[in-house]
Design brief:
The chain is an alpha+beta fold and 187 residues long. The chain has three helices and eight strands; from the N terminus they run ββαβββαβαββ. Strands 2-3-4-5-6-1-7-8 form an eight-stranded mixed sheet, covered by helices on one side.
Length: 187
């Protein structure tokens, strides 16, 4: 496996968004879809750089459409999981202008194995009927790829993350091999 190889998946809500299996949060967990508002550019308690950058991009209208948000799952006050919802921008040339991407997902180690990622993906797709969703991950991220398949996504192909002059933030994600040219049975 090449660590740089990305596997791209698509859920074409334009062809029937009801194809998503319903996964609910386990008892004791609650979720909210946070969106930037007022001076708040990132969800409370989220210090990582991408959240501030994406919130700023949303405020400046740099995404192809509205829709940026973070699906936040907590148990009590403890952060258990998050999944980001990103509209198209220059890093994702394969996306259409109305498409959304589920990205930067994370489940805290103490909450893994409880179906939180499946519940988040299912909720995001169900709350945006008629939208084409994208998801991609490194080909060796087996757990992530299993979650997305369970949620009804189909393998679209493989590609890579470019890094011009070695600078990843300047790069793009390139889908350069369609599914018909890639054996996806490893994940």
């Amino acid at each position: 496996m090449n660590r740089n190889t990305q596997h791209f998946y698509v859920h074409d809500g334009l062809r029937g968004g009801d194809r998503v299996p319903r996964f609910d949060l386990p008892e004791g967990y609650h979720a909210v879809l946070w969106r930037p508002s007022g001076a708040e550019l990132r969800p409370p308690g989220f210090e990582r750089h991408p959240f501030l950058m994406w919130g700023t991009m949303a405020r400046l209208g740099l995404f192809a459409r509205e829709g940026y948000g973070v699906f936040v799952v907590r148990r009590g006050r403890e952060l258990a999981h998050y999944s980001c919802l990103l509209p198209k921008y220059q890093r994702f040339p394969f996306m259409g202008p109305q498409d959304l991407q589920i990205a930067s997902t994370h489940t805290a180690p103490s909450h893994r194995g409880r179906g939180l990622a499946k519940a988040a993906v299912s909720a995001l797709i169900r709350s945006h009927p008629g939208v084409r969703f994208w998801y991609f991950a490194s080909e060796d991220n087996i757990a992530s790829l299993r979650v997305i398949r369970a949620c009804g996504f189909e393998f679209a192909g493989a590609g890579y993350r470019s890094a011009p002059w070695g600078v990843k933030p300047l790069g793009r994600f390139v889908l350069d091999r369609p599914a018909s040219q890639v054996d996806d049975e490893r994940a």
